[in-house]
Amino acid sequence: MSISLPAFVAIPLATAFLLPMFGKRGKDAATVVANIATIILLVLAISCIGESGVYEIGKWPIPLGINLVLDGLSSLLLLAIGVVSAAVMLFSAGYMEQYTAKPKYLSLFLLMVAGMNGVVLSGDIFNLFVFLEIASIASYALVGFGCGHEEFEAAFKYMVLGSIASIFVLFGIGLVYGNTGTLNMAYISKAIQSSGMNAGLGFALALFIVGFSLKAALVPFHAWLPDAHPSAPAPISAMLSGVLIKTLGVYALARVVFNIFGVSVPVGWLLIVLGILSMVIGVFLAVGQWDLKRLLAYHSISQMGYVVLGLGIGALILARGGELKWAALAILGGLFHMVNHAVFKSLLFLTSGSIEMATGTRQLKQLGGLAERMPFTRATCTLASAAISGVPPFNGFWSKLILVMATVQAGFYGLGAVTVLVSLITLISFLKVQRYVFLGELPENLRQVKENGGSMLIGMVFLACLCVLMGLLVLVPGLRDSILEPAVRVLMDGHKYSDIVAGM
Amino acid sequence: MQGMTIIVKTISSWVKVLIVLFGIYIILFGHLTPGGGFAGGVILASSYVLLMLAFGGEFVKKDLPLSLVSKLDCLGAFMFIMIAILGLVFGGTFFFNFLVEKYGQPLHLLSAGTIPFSNIAIGLKVGASLFLVIYSLSICCKAEELDSH
Amino acid sequence: MLYALCFLLFMIGLYCAVVKKNMVKIVVGILIMEYAVNLFLIMLGYRHSGVAPIIDKSYLESQAALNNFVSSSVDPLPQALVLTAIVISLGSLALMISICIRTYEKYGTFDITEIRRLRG
Q1: How many domains does chain C have?
Q2: Distance of CA C99 to the CA centre of its chain
Q3: B133 to C102: CB separation less than 8 angstroms, yes or no
């Protein structure tokens, strides 16, 4: 291993503990230090594409100690976390000037990034729970950061549901330990392979699915998301919707279902049902919203449905023993859509934050005609809206195309039709956003707004360029084989994860 | 919040020293007997909470300025992560216990390498954090809201 | 049999967190759930007529005494898990209570059916 894996967790933790000592007068120095930390993390994440390895903490051998595992899926998610957190940190350097406690915000933000990196890299299931809690508690505090009426209500709802999810996960971990006697994910996988599932392990799998679906905000566990995402400050909404629900929810679900417990037909159907419900209910509730950020939050639920649908179809085909290439295509579509959604949804939330900072309101009926006053925001928002609706040649189109192809080839013609219909309704709701925010009449009180400049612009433009270029990840075979192919291979191989980790 | 009677004030200022001593004992012997960093930190915090109950919140704010407690908090956490990184520098792996071969034998106070230092850092951090949490919870409730319940 | 009682305590906590209308009662419900899960984790490590897993000088004298100690002591790993879980729940609880108190200052009530500004 050319780089050491604990750097992904140690660098943000050390910076987060150092920052509150700066106090009010060192606010600008604190911002610079935090930005340097996220950019170092992005560089490290890019340098470990295509590598894999196991790192034992404290030189304790594997069943006795905790280990960190880097494989294809982990490196893909580390790259997504690095990109989104670097861009959002650049944006928040300018946006958070309107709040008073900026060093505390930066410290909590870096704690959340450290927690997410730890979840993705962990090779031990209790260590995954500890890092999940670190990231969750940091995000509960960040949602209520501007201390107004709505922020506290949203933070309380989010906190109660998130804590219940974590307790379910801990109960599941206890059941798994009682049945297998070890906490290392590779050793648990081997034990389940040799002894098979019994009632205790089945109940543990159910608890894990419920707990991680609550964190990923799939229907019917989505009740916290439409309140929490609008009330948070805009960079935090971008981080929550962009990476937090993916690493804490979808990554953990995929790791537990594919690598530890192994796929089976009921679990595959359960994932497909969760995915379809989230897609349809999310988008129908989104079309009627008049608050910009609440509309974007409902769309997050719907797009998470796409990802889980892809994973579910892959799991079902693997469990039935069907054609392997269609399972690989479905899983590729799901994972690629996850990474795409991280980029364009965080860009959408950042543009909504820019609009709110300039005009002071989020209600669609009070905005209008901002196209000539804020040209850069208009350009990036239109680009991101086209990407999420699946307009070619942006990145959303390629991932949705792969998903529709996989559903049709697997024989689920009805699901393919529903996917295309949901995509159409997404297009309708974003056309509504464009018409009400950017076109039309400029109201009287908004004649003085001007474009937000500086670091906020750099963050938004960086993500917008990625939106345009990420279609190449699938079209160019070299990039696809080094970034996306290892991730798909990890999930397809399932139980071979234990051979790779225990053999090293 | 007001303080209590003079008997309580005198006794609690004597007992506070004993509680701090007990907390330090639990932290330092954490690798030999039950306890360790977290339990010792809670006991250290509770000594100042006893003072706050007996004398009132304003006295404690003058006695122990909040900015100092906040800096102690960050210092404790930073010391902990520095011990982990020093394990990387000296031993080659993160969190490696680089003092355990050279000093001390088992079952004595000097055994177990870097674990007592981690305990001290955690005790400092937990004590400072819990004191800040309980203090900030106590200043939030205003007296007239308490009376209406 | 004891595991069933532990599960019953978990269900009581879940009922309390879901049905009650007072914010503080919901927080207490979550607390009961966490206690139930910690209790379940500790019960996993029990062995019949076991000793506490703390090494003493008398166990280090011979290999036979050490083997006897290892086979008869209670499993120490769930105890470490529970310590970590208690610390995490302390941090989470402190944040929940402070959010409750600040919400009370803004809205003037602890009743969640009246705190409904965000809807739709």
Answers
A1: 1
A2: 21
A3: no
Q: Is residue C18 part of a domain?
A: yes
Within A217-323, where are the H helices? 225-231, 234-239, 245, 252-254, 265-287, 292-320
Residue at C120 is within a domain:
no
Q: Which residue among C54, C101, C104 sits closest to B137, beta carbon to beta carbon?
A: C101
Put simply, the answer to whether B34 touches C87 (Cβ < 8 Å) is no
**ipTM of the predicted assembly exceeds 0.85:** yes
User: pLDDT tens digit string along A120-136?
Assistant: 998 889 999 999 999 99
Q: How far is B47 from chain C (nearest CA, A)?
A: 19
Measured between alpha carbons, how far is residue A358 from residues A371, A437, B49 in Å? 13, 13, 46
Task: Find the CB nearest A17 among B74, B87, B92.
Answer: B74
Confidence of residue B103 (pLDDT cuts 50, 70, 90): low
State the average pLDDT over residues A188-204: 87
Contact A160 C102 (CB under 8 A): no
Annotated domain spans of chain B: 6-148
The residue whose two tokens read 């009632």 is A199
Q: Which residue has the tokens 């209600």?
A: A363
CA neighbours closer than 13 Å in the CB half-sphere of residue B36: 11
Mutation for B interface: C42, C51, C87, most B CBs within 10 A: C87
Q: Is residue C116 part of a domain?
A: no
| Interchain CB contact of A57 with B (< 8 Å) | yes
- Quickly list DSSP for A130-185: HHHHHHHHHHHHHHT-S-SHHHHHHHHHHHHHHHHHHHHHHHHHHHHHHHHS--BH
Chain C positions in Cβ-Cβ contact with residue B145 (cut-off 8 Å): 104
Q: 């003037």: which residue's tokens?
A: C108
Which positions in chain C touch A292 (Cβ < 8 Å)? none
CA distance A192 to A36: 44
pLDDT at B106: 67
Q: Domain range spanning residue C66?
A: 2-48+56-107
- Out of B74, B91, B96, the one facing A20 most closely (by C-beta) is B74
Partner-chain contact C55 B107, CB within 8 Å: yes
Among residues A79, A136, A138, A132, the alpha carbon closest in space to that of A256 is found at A132
- Chain B residues whose CB is inside 8 A of the A59 CB are 91-93, 96
CB contact under 8 A, A58 and B93: yes
Yes or no: say if A145 and A233 are a contact pair by the CB < 8 Å rule: yes
The number of C-alpha atoms within 13 Å of A393 and in the hemisphere containing its C-beta is 9
Instruction: Provide long-range contacts, Cβ within 8 A and 24+ apart, for B4-12.
Output: B4/B53, B4/B54, B8/B54, B9/B54, B9/B55, B12/B50, B12/B51, B12/B53, B12/B54, B12/B55
* pTM for this predicted structure: 0.92
Note whether B11 contacts A: Cβ–Cβ < 8 A: no
Measured CA to CA, the distance from residue B127 to residue B45 in angstroms comes to: 5
The answer as to whether C119 is a domain residue is: no
CATH number at C43 reads 1.10.287.3510
Q: Is B22 a residue whose pLDDT tops 70?
A: yes
Nearest to A17 among B70, B81, B92 (CB): B81
Cβ contacts of A164 on chain C, cutoff 8 Å: 14, 17, 30, 33
Residues of A in contact with B129 (CB under 8 A): none
